[in-house]
């Protein structure tokens, strides 16, 4: 409960942190290799839209998204209904997003899975869900995310994303971790991060290790594609 109380203060600055994440002056490798270039400025665009591949076993399938370098699209009625569940903050007037109904359905299932471990601390859930919503659906993804690799589904002839870089502030990573680090799982009585921080467990976990595990496909069947979290001040 002490962790939840500390998290309430963090929640009040979460919106500013998300904006900073989207607008931060990050650096990305230029096309010539080795050099760096300022992050994209001006209006952001999407990096994906829709699901183009489903991987994994029948009992544990993950969705891989279609690359899309274009402007965000208007939210249809089904997508709006699904966003109402966890991502209401995205439903501004004339809302546009970089996710369709199928992606939001996947998002809602993933949030439900996380809630099995973290729901005992509403502030922890709020912090993590905000990240998941903006990561999946933000209309300005290109300002903080870059596709690093794709593959082709030979059956459907559709290209899908397998690796991305995601630029994120250290303040957000540390605040989210602090709000969740002491939460216990009601089903096991153990700290949730014993199950959600890979081989490190709760005792050796940190903000960096937690986000690394959440983005690593190797040994983590719940991650649909590699997410390289790149931390900035």
Structural descriptors:
single chain; 233 residues; alpha+beta; three-stranded mixed sheet; 9 helices; 24% strand; cholesterol binding
Would you write up a description of this structure?
By secondary structure, this protein is of the alpha+beta class. It is 39% helix and 24% strand. The strands form four sheets. A three-stranded mixed β-sheet has the order 7-8-9. Strands 1-2 form a two-stranded antiparallel sheet. A hairpin with a 2-residue loop joins β3 (48-57) and β4. The model is unreliable at 5-41 (pLDDT under 50). GO terms for molecular function: cholesterol binding. InterPro entries: NPC1_N. Residues 1-24 form the signal peptide. This is Niemann-Pick C1 protein.
Task: Itemize the secondary structure elements and their pairings.
Layout: H1 2-11, H2 14-23, E1 27-29, E2 36-38, E3 48-57, E4 60-67, E5 73-74, H3 77-86, E6 96-97, H4 101-118, H5 122-137, E7 145-153, E8 158-169, H6 170-180, H7 193-196, H8 201-204, H9 207-215, E9 226-232
Parallel strand pairs: 8-9
Antiparallel strand pairs: 1-2, 3-4, 5-6, 7-8
Protein name: Niemann-Pick C1 protein
Keywords: Signal
InterPro entries: NPC1_N
């Amino acid at each position: 409960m002490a962790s939840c109380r500390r998290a309430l203060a963090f929640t009040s600055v979460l919106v500013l942190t998300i904006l900073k994440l989207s607008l931060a002056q990050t650096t990305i490798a230029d096309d010539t290799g080795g050099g760096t270039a300022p992050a994209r400025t001006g209006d952001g665009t999407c990096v994906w839209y829709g699901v183009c591949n489903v991987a994994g076993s029948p009992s544990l399938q993950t969705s891989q998204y279609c690359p899309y370098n274009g402007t965000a699209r208007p939210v249809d009625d089904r997508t709006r209904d699904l966003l109402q569940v966890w991502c209401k903050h995205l439903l501004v007037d004339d809302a546009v997003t970089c996710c369709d109904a199928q992606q939001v359905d996947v998002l809602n299932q993933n949030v439900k899975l996380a809630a099995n471990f973290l729901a005992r601390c509403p502030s922890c859930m709020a912090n993590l869900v905000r990240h998941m919503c903006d990561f999946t659906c933000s209309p300005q993804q290109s300002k903080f995310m870059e596709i690093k690799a794709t593959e082709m589904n030979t059956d459907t002839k559709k290209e899908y994303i397998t690796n991305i870089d995601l630029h994120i502030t250290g303040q957000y990573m540390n605040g989210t971790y602090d709000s969740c680090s002491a939460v216990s799982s009601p089903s096991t009585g153990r700290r949730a991060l014993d199950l959600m921080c890979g081989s490190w467990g709760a005792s050796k976990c940190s903000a960096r290790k937690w986000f690394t595990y959440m983005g690593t496909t190797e040994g983590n069947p719940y991650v649909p594609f590699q997410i390289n979290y790149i931390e900035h001040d």
